[in-house]
Every structure is written in structure tokens, then in C-alpha cells.
Amino acid sequence: MNPFLCKLCSQSYTKYTSAMAEEKKPKAEKKTKAPAGDKPALKKRPFKRHGRLYAKAIFTGYKRGLRNQHENTALLKVEACETKPDSWFYVGKKCVYVYKAKHKTCIPGKPKSKKSKVRAIWGKVTRPHGCTGAVRAKFKRNLPAKAMGHRIRIMLYPSRV
Amino acid sequence: MEFIATKKPAKPLTAVKPIGGEKNGEKRVVLLKKRRNYYPTQDKIRKRPAKKCFKQHKRSLRSSIKPGTILILLAGPHKGKRVVFLKQLHSGLLLITGPFKINACPLRRISQRYVIGTQTRIDISKAKIPDTINDSYFRRERKKRAKKEEGDIFSTKKESYKVNDQRKADQKIVDKEIIGAIKSHPERKLLFGYLASMFGLRSSQYPHRMKF
User: Fold this and answer.
1) Which pLDDT tens digit goes with each residue over B19-62?
2) In chain B, which residues have pLDDT < 50?
3) A contact residues 14-33, partner B, Cβ 8 Å cutoff
4) Rounded Cα distance, A34 and B82, in Å
5) CB-CB: which of B113, B196, B211 is closest to A35?
6) What's the CA dihedral at A134, A136, A141, A144 to 10 degrees?
7) pLDDT at position B126, please?
8) Are B212 and A27 within 8 A, CB to CB?
């Protein structure tokens, strides 16, 4: 009935990924996650998530002219996003630069006793940049320059799908 | 419709007051409630409320989200889970359930913005969701503080949330209906597995290319 569910039963996951690699620019794919070898017994709780809930991107630099740069806006290169229409998907989405530091600090939303070395700078994608899929983002505090070339995560929310 | 006025003891509208002076007639009939000093020629301009208050806002729902749709949660403690959408509440939030047996997600409210609507749909038109499950059902309970608590400011500890029995009972009722609806679906085996598994992006999966 549902075409993608049929795909689930007919293809195993490995076959599916190889099919993915063949298609150059897959426009429409039905994505499901096969139960990944778990038997769907009702008692089992899938606590470990096997995948990301964010898109990968690299912080390539600040918004700039040739000789001046403006650090309040960051340029991000989103993985596998090569055209401007594609990059419109990410506009409005929250993004975060995650990094570690030496000292432990409090985690927002958790009791004060739980501290962690992981820190984050949140921001959001504001608009596309250029015509080859890059994107501009503004963060709560400007990104540190050492983040250039490093991973920032573009979350899938606020979702418009 | 006939309105039969009940006769109340009539309040006096006028009073008779004596006045002095000769040949004045000795008394005047005076209105007890005086008439207005000024009658404006135009109606007063009343300002309309510039903004609507929250409960009057228009609630919209994305076309991809319909009752019975399976949603992917993107944030919160249940992120990555696939859950069943039941209905949109009056506040605009979506009411969802795991069902609890399948993926440990209880009856819950979430915002549309933190959700991806997939194309998978279950027919829950026959499932009856109790009307008592609405926004006030999920409202957080604020403990009432006694007015004068001088030394006790820090003594009230934050109590962790404990599920009360009413929620457990309601969960069972709703889940029974939903699981029944899933069971009548021709692809129920896949659906149970689908709901039990979690969503996650893998290598070479890109959300801007995906059709959910």
C-alpha cells in the first residue's frame, strides 16, 4: 500500500545504501529506517539511537569582503548541499557549534550538580549564501575563529516538512 | 418570547423640594438622577484591541500532519522516536502517543515545529480519544506557597515529576484504540517495527534531499 514500506521489506539496508550511492542526485527517496536487525519485540526499548538528528556542516569563515570581515555572520558549507534551492531547506533551522573545554560547566536544564566539559554556541541559519549551497548563520555569540574548518551541526528544527 | 416583568418596588425618579421666595410656587419637582451636562454630537471613537490574546489566535496545522500520521520527533527527551499523531489541541500543540508499549513515549503535547510529518498514516477515525485529554490536562501544577514563609524559602525542594495513576489509565485507554487501529492496517507487522525503531540520519542521507 505504502510504497516506501514495500521498499523496506524488499531491500535490506545494505542494498539500500548501495542503491543510494549509485543515484547521482536523488530527488525523491522514501526513507525509512529498517529495524536494524532488532526484532520488534514490544518489550525492547531502543534507547541507543543509531543516527544523527542534525545535518553536518562546516564553518568556512565569516562574512567578508576581500579585505574586511564581519564576524557577526558566519558562512557554513552544508554537506551535500550544492545548489541554492537545496540550501533553502536549511534556512531558519537552528545550528550549534559544539566543543569541549578543560573545565566543567553547568548544563542548562539539568540540576546544578551535573556538569560537563561539553559546551555549545547556538545560532540559526539565516539565508543562503551564493549559488552553490552555502548558507549564512548568526550565532548568539560570534563563533571563535578556531572553529573554522570544524563541524557545526544544523538541527532539523524548526521544521517545515 | 414574552417577558413578564416582575414588579419591583418602584424607585422614585423625582423628588419634590421646597424652595423659598415669594410667588415662586413653593416647590419644585427635581430629578433624583440628573441628566447629562453634555451630549456629544458624534459617537466616541473606541480603540479596538491592537493584538489578539493567545486564545484567540488562529491555529494552523501543516498539511502533512493529519490525525493518524506518524511523526518523527526532532527534539526533547523522545527525540528520534516515531510516534502517532492524535489531534491538535486548542492551544495549537499536537497531542501524540507512542503508543507507550511500543516506544515508551506517553501521551504528550508537542509543537509542530519540532516534528517531521511522514507520509505514513494510520486510520484512527474509529479511535475515540477521551475529551478530558486537553490542554488543562497537561498543565503544569504549581504548588501554592503559603503567604508568609519566612525561614522556609529554600526548604521546599523541587519534586521530580511522578506519573499519576490517571495518566496511566488514560494511556492504556488511548493506546488500546491506537494499537487496534494499527492491527487493522494491512502492513501492521512493519508498522510495529517501524514505530519501535528510531529515526536517525546516516552516512549519505541528507535531509534536504529526503522525502519523508
Assistant:
1) 888 888 888 888 888 888 888 899 888 888 888 888 888 888 99
2) none
3) 17, 20-21, 25-33
4) 13
5) B196
6) 30
7) 84
8) no
Q: Which residues of chain B neighbour A5 with C-beta distances below 8 Å? A: 120, 187, 190-191, 194
User: pLDDT tens for residues A115-152?
Assistant: 899 999 999 999 999 999 999 999 999 999 999 999 99
Alpha helices by DSSP H, B89-205: 100-103, 135-138, 165-183, 188-196
Q: How many residues does chain A have?
A: 161
Within an 8 Å CB–CB cutoff, is residue B176 touching chain A? no
- A67/chain B closest Cα distance in angstroms: 33
* 3-state secondary structure at position A97: strand
Retrieve residue B113's grid coordinates. Answer: 515545529
Q: Residue B184, Cα to own-chain centre: how many angstroms?
A: 31
Going B54 to B56 to B57 to B61, the CA torsion angle's sign is positive
Q: Residue A17 and residue B203: Cβ atoms within 8 Å?
A: yes
Count CB-CB contacts under 10 A for residue A114. Answer: 10
Asked if A33 lies within 8 A of B203 by C-beta distance, the reply is: no
Interface confidence, given as ipTM, is: 0.71
- From chain A, pick out residues whose CB is under 8 angstroms from the CB of B192: 40, 42
| Contact between A27 and B64 using a beta-carbon 8 Å cutoff | no
Whole-model pTM: value is 0.71
Q: Residue A98: its pLDDT value, please?
A: 94
Q: CB A154: neighbour CB atoms within 10 A?
A: 25
The reply to whether residue B209 touches residue A25, judged by beta carbons under 8 angstroms, is yes
B70-89 in b/e form (b: 16+ CB < 10 A) is: bbbbbbeebbbbbbbbbebb
